[in-house]
Write a structure and sequence with these properties.
about 325 residues; alpha/beta; 10 helices
């Protein structure tokens, strides 16, 4: 039988999150919604994010019907200014942050630049989490402590294995491929996580950073923008009953399990800089282990966004 509740599959359903607060981006649908509801059922306050206010308010209403409570904040993450405005709204609503779940993202078939002049997929899938984490880092640091660090969890994908870091394509859409751009952005999520974790450790900050692959989840809107063979397969699988679908793919609730696990489980309190799949750390691609690319991506992201983290190595490294 498939797992119906992500917190049950993650082995954390008995954890009491009363008094804790989480931000879950991209949580009006898909695995983000399932994660937000799971945190609410465990008693947390959840900041729900998305672009559709009606969907957001429905999720908040569902959370309010559990042990937790929710608040919806609308934002489009395609520009640095919009992400910073969202962070301002978050700080106005909450005074502690136990976990930032960078879950929003997508695959976009049309090549275009944002108003900041950045390739759209890279901007939404990587640069937005980079900026939001920086903007909310002080709140994470104030909330976390040595025994219970605050947590940053970023949704990557197994598709990163088909990606590469083409730094020349970050402000260019010539020869654009939506699927290639997506794979590259998911690789960037892992490189960002490893570099963030290293800098947090060097700075002795009470914050951890991990990322994960949710699995192939045909029940989300993601397959609509994948190549045709993927779309056909996803449509066929999503038409199956849950009990059958879970045998050949990952249901939406199952896709949220590792995200909930990384946000809540005591098993990973001291774990940082890892890439997870199905509740376990995994070895990502060789490109995802390239420390030089991780540092370069960090510096390029700073230049494109104008964001400063204020972590210890910041002043000494400018590759």
């Amino acid at each position: 039988m498939p797992t119906k509740l992500p917190e049950r599959g993650a082995g954390v359903e008995n954890v009491d999150l009363s008094g804790r607060t989480y931000v879950v981006t991209g949580s009006t649908s898909g695995i983000g919604r399932e994660t937000a509801l799971a945190l609410g059922r465990m008693g947390a306050r959840v900041v729900v994010h998305g672009r559709d206010e009606q969907k957001g308010e429905r999720v908040v209403k569902e959370i309010d019907g559990t042990e937790g409570d929710g608040v919806f904040l609308r934002a489009d993450f395609s520009t640095t200014e919009a992400v910073r405005a969202f962070a301002d709204d978050v700080r106005d609503k909450i005074d502690r942050l136990d976990g930032l779940l960078n879950n929003a993202g997508g695959l976009f078939s049309d090549g275009r630049l944002t108003d900041d002049g950045v390739e759209f997929t890279f901007a939404v899938n990587h640069l937005a989490p980079f900026v939001l984490t920086a903007e909310l880092l002080s709140l994470l640091r104030e909330t976390g402590d040595k025994d219970e660090p605050a947590r940053v969890v970023t949704t990557s994908s197994g598709a990163h294995r088909r990606g590469s870091m083409d730094f020349d394509a970050l402000t260019d859409v010539d020869d654009y491929s939506g699927f290639d751009a997506y794979c590259g952005s998911k690789l960037a999520n892992i490189l960002f996580t490893s570099e963030l974790a290293r800098r947090l450790k060097d700075d002795d900050a009470p914050v951890t950073a991990n990322c994960f692959h949710p699995g192939a989840v045909p029940g989300t809107g993601f397959p609509r923008e994948t190549p045709l063979p993927f779309r056909i397969a996803a449509k066929a699988v999503s038409a199956l009953p849950d009990a059958v679908e879970s045998l050949v793919a990952t249901t939406v609730a199952e896709g949220a399990e590792t995200q909930v696990y990384l946000a809540v489980s005591s098993d990973v309190t001291e774990v940082s800089g890892e890439y997870f799949y199905e509740l376990r750390p995994r070895v990502p691609s060789e490109d995802a282990l390239d420390d030089g690319d991780a540092r370069r991506l960090w510096e390029v992201s700073r230049e494109l966004s104008g964001v400063e983290y204020g972590l210890a190595p910041e002043e000494t490294e400018s590759e």
